[in-house]
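Q: Here's a chain of 120 amino acids. Please give me its 3D structure as tokens.
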Amino acid sequence: MRNFIEDVPAEGGADIPEDVAGGLKVLLMQDWTAEASKRVFLIGDAPTHGKKYHGLADDYPNGSPEGLNLEELMAEFKAKDIDFNVIKLNSSLDGMVKVMKEYHDELDAKDMYDQEMAPA
């Protein structure tokens, strides 16, 4: 899976951070039924916009260009009892994940950048 993701070309934008908050907002707008097993997997190699989440160059240093708040979004996932998993492909997500855990204390994060690659 890691090899596949690394081979997917990125397009647009001159900075490294991504619109993670925008993607999370779309997930929260989904029609989650009461009996559904609600689980989110975020696989990332770049943090969300906002300098408070990382030390990278960022075209939106104050955060989401749509004014979305990562902390509020994570609190909403927690309130809606949606399991949240983050698979970090590098350490640039560490600061963002730390903040996310403050608002969704059951968030599970896995570091894939420290894992040995299995032979294909």
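Q: Can you summarize the key feature?
A: The chain has one domain: 1-8+39-120.
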